Amino acid sequence: MANLLSLNDLTVSEIDEILDRAEQIREMGDAGWFAPNHLLVANLFFEPSTRTRFSFETAEKRLGLQVLNFSSAASSTQKGETLYDTVRTMQAIGAKAVVIRHKKDEYYRELLEGIDVKILNAGDGAGNHPTQALLDLLTIHQEFFAFRGLTVAIIGDLRYSRVARSDAEVLNRLGCQVLLSGPEEWKNEKLPGKYVPVDDAIEAADAVIMLRIQHERHETAMKLTKEEYHDRYGLTRERAERMKPESIIMHPGPVNRGVELDGDLVESAHSRYFKQISNGVVARMAALEWALDLKDGRQASEPERIAEKL
Questions:
Q1: Which end of the chain has less neighbouring CB within 10 Å, N or C?
Q2: What is the structure's pLDDT at 88?
Q3: Is 101 annotated as a binding residue?
Q4: According to the annotation, is 280 in a ligand binding site?
Q5: Which DSSP letter does residue 73 get?
Q6: Radius of gyration of the chain (CA)
Q7: Is 236 annotated as a binding residue?
Q8: What residues make up the domain containing 67?
Q9: Residue 129 marked as a ligand binder
Q10: Is 267 found in the same domain as 143?
Q11: What residues of the chain score a pLDDT lower than 50?
């Protein structure tokens, strides 16, 4: 059993293992291979979420897990309870894992001592989003069957996006050329990759990942109007026409149509936006199996774990 906090903590072999399992789950569809195992998992979301929260919940239920859904607005955090005490409470109730999204970067560091449940990071501030990176990897691999030698462009709010960080780091490790582009004031020099103009990035990329503007993390309001941002940095119809014939468009969501990309492109032949959402369920199923040491939707027995090591 292991935490999933950042893909940087995993070896390439472990990443491959999770991706292979996610693809296997996808191919199996709704076959009755998973069975109730009565393990409790708590979803603790301290920021708004649609895709991540509901795909985690769907993944948990498909694995037969018992799900506790936490609402920070109706919890004791409103009375001053710390994150540590909230997680410790979930542990005392009987949860074996917690899925946490929090506005604080690396919130999980305060939980690494004294907590005996597995932590799956569903997004920490502008830090990491490992399961989003896993589903993005799965989506790219389904198209191109490999990573080494691909060119992936990540465009938009690079400074505040946890998706940008997680994707850029793992894609670089897997042998992709990462191109970065966006407003000068949102550059992130810590990201691995080469900064190029938007048009050059879109024309060269096999996969174009457009990022949502992280308004909630900005200290000052955006200087550009939505229309100006779309014209300068968005994926317009004109830019999309200059993409490679087999290239794909990706977006972590939620999409702001007419801002990060033209509304018509969300469901275009190049787009894999809704495929990413679908892949999010199987990627998170595989991540939960990995973190909880589950076998085909049930917890591995001690004899099975011993046998695997022999």
A1: C
A2: 96
A3: yes
A4: no
A5: G
A6: 20
A7: no
A8: 7-125+279-309
A9: yes
A10: yes
A11: 32-33, 301-310
